[in-house]
Amino acid sequence: MNTLLLWLTLLMQGVPPLPNQGGTVTGIVKSADGTPAANVRVVAMVPPDSPQDVAGIASMATLAETDENGRYRLDNVPLGRYLIAAGRIDAQTYYPGFLDVAKASKVLVTAGNTLTGINFTLNDSSGGRASNSGFALVSSLPSADVPFKFSGTKIPISYPGGYPKLVLTNVKNGQRWTATMDRLSINVGPTQGSGSSSESYNVSIEDFPAGYSIKSMTSGPVDLAQKPFQIPAGRFSTSRVVIAVSIQQALGLLNSGAVQPQAPPPSPAPVPNASSIVIELNYAAPPAPATGIRVAGKFNGNIGARSFYISNIQGTTYSDGTFEFAGVPPGRHVITSRNNSAGANPLGAVLVVGGRDVEDVKLEEFAVLPMEFASQPQSDTRPAGSKLPLPSLNGRVVDQTTGTGIGQGVVYFSGQEMISFRLQPDGSFQIPHLLPGSYKLEIQVFGHINVSRDLVIADENLDIEFRSANFFAQ
What is the Cα gyration radius of the chain? Predict the structure, then answer.
């Protein structure tokens, strides 16, 4: 068997790519309201030399489309640093959640590895499917970044009724621009043209939970409850952009080499931000639930517009990094974070709840949410308030015939997302800090048949030996 035929045969059997090939980027894209952004174009693109450079197909390394759960997977990304962007290419959102390419974060892609957790929220103006549109240069897309901040009380990021939002509505045409409370600014556009004239916007808050009210809403000396917010002429920046073709057409152009990078145009002078919006809030706590108890805690890291659940009960998340649940029944509960924002790993804990409030719950980071986990509390005899350690999966891959460890391969571990691990020289691997629930595991080892297994993780560590038959012995 010559070298080329051997390589092709192994590739057809699912043997992992060679180390000098591309890497993979995975993540989840959410809409501004926290729901999955389905059927949205996602691209890995070469960072432009200038923020005003054309964000077109010439800079794409690869692209894909999100599924119905907002998940995407960019495969065969060449080694290097890239920007990850989603939505319409004429107004795309850049990871970790900005319309302005100058604020985007670069991700490092390494050969043969999978970069997970590149999650971010799609700006409203980036919405729209990636297919059925042709490439055409757009002369400019004006926009302005408006800083905002809240004061007076803890700011809710998410709660059982939804996600509070700041809304700016253009007085002339009624177009709405929204931002969730985890943001520091809201990006808006003018009525038409290049933004050469001043624009007026009515300011409002939507979807606040019960007990909250607005004490004041100002921009400098202007009372925004009485007068619209003004963005003066000249405060809108512009950039050259490209309208997207279908994914199939774009991949064809990329693979054929028909599109070549273009030199970027000169950078214009920077445009200052619009004035800030300052909102002071009042809060009067609603009555406590008639049954159940309160569970509360704090978490570190990126807050974002994520939501928290204890079993099937959604809690309230605040901008200071705290969370709380009300009316929690007794039993063993699984706490999970959902809609995790840009680059933030999921958080969770397993907790026993009894007849008294539980405060200062500490959450742990983990790599993957289970595909399914218990949505109802389970009976448990351990003391109320006990936080149970998260279990680990300890595995080893051995040759089916010889029993020796196989040290060349990759373990793919899937829940609501996928991560990958390289096998150690003795064939062992460990996946720590797992929430109880169901997962899928696939092992690809050089020269051996792939191994697939559905796993159920409980409260204890799971130790498994996986056996794989030698491909050449078949």
Answer: 25
**Which pTM does this prediction carry?**
0.62
List pLDDT tens digits, range 164-193.
999 999 998 888 888 888 888 888 888 766
Q: Tally the C-alpha atoms within 13 A of residue 357's C-alpha that lie toward its C-beta.
A: 10
Q: Which residue has the tokens 């145009």?
A: 265
Single-letter residue type at 65: E
What single letter denotes the amino acid at residue 146?
A: V
Q: Across 46-158, where does the E strand assignment appear?
A: 60-65, 71-77, 80-86, 93-94, 107-109, 114-115, 120-121, 137-138, 144-151, 156-158
Cα separation, 22 vs 16, whole angstroms: 11
Residue 173 carries which DSSP code?
Answer: T
The β-bridge relationship of strands 144-151 and 277-283 is parallel
**In this structure, are strands 71-77 and 41-45 parallel, antiparallel, or unpaired?**
unpaired
Asked if 333 contacts 351 with a C-beta cutoff of 8 angstroms, the reply is: yes
| 15 Cβ contact partners less than 8 Å away, ≥ 6 residues apart | 444, 445, 446, 447
Stated length of the chain: 474
DSSP-assigned states of every residue in 417-471: SEEEEEPPTTSEEEE-S--SEEEEEEEEETTB--EEEEEEE-SS-EEEEEEE-BG
Within its chain, how far is the Cα of 123 from the centroid?
13
Tokens of 157: 């990021």
Name beta bridge partners: 391: none
**Which of 455, 416, 422, 452 lies closest to 438, judged by CA?**
455
Strand residues in 152-243 grouped as ranges (E): 156-158, 165-170, 176-180, 185-188, 199-206, 212-219, 222-223, 229-231, 241-242
State yes or no: cis peptide before 96, omega within 30 of 0.
Answer: yes
* CA distance readout (Å), 118 to 31, 71, 243, 345, 346: 15, 10, 24, 9, 12
67-120 tens-digit pLDDT: 888 899 998 888 778 889 998 766 788 888 888 777 778 888 877 778 888 888
Q: Which candidate, 451, 446, 453, places its Cα nearest to that of 472?
A: 446
Query: Contact 275/228 with Cβ under 8 angstroms?
Result: no
